[in-house]
Please model this.
Amino acid sequence: MVRNIDDLDFCLSSHPQSILEGLRSLCSQPKLVDVTLSAGGRDFPCHRGILALCSHYFHSMFSGDFVESIAARVELHDVDPSVLSQLLDFAYTGKLTINKNNVEGLICTSSQLQFHTVRTVCSRYLQHQIDATNCLGILEFGEIHGCPEVVAKAWSFLLENFEAVQQQEEFLMLEKDRLVACLKDEDLHIRDDRSCVEAVLAWVGHCKDSRISHLRELLGLVKLSLLTESYLTENLLKEPLVQDSLESKEFVERMCRE
Model:
């Protein structure tokens, strides 16, 4: 007989990781998986339980009254198989390598399939990558894919580093409404308003035929009254774009007289 001693609470610390690794290895054995995901012509044998725990999309699919809840094979449309493979690796291992080449694909697919943890981590990564050369592209990407935290970070960077951003090729492709919003924002950081004038002229000049009609409006958003009379008369008024826009020319002439 065993003596009456205190209970022994045993915990195998490696057990959770061993189970996950074991389940991952079982994916190569058809009899030991319960669903196969198909995307882009590739098949991915896996386990409903693992998918449901890592993805709200799959949790709803497998626990709801959908055909897929009992189907042995689930077709995923408009899903990049290489990105899906990375998400499944994460589901089974908790590990994921994010880099500049895959972060956008991971955000797109993790948003689509509701791998919220992956989406959050990728969002943070993307925010840390923002610089003068890419902030406008990242801003647009964040808006398209519903990442308000990315949009906010990119917009803040744009306002704080406007003079650096305006030197980039991306700036010339900026939508007019976004340029207007930027020039109107009270948090716009610039050394003086000549930077805004130069930005407006560069933007209009990039696509003169379609943009020169906006020149007067854009110049009206710049605090020309804070610039010297000599700059207005000797530089801005003699600018070919201003000369080619009667409204803009008259506006600058009026500012010179005031």
User: Anything to note?
Assistant: The chain is about 60% helix and 5% strand.
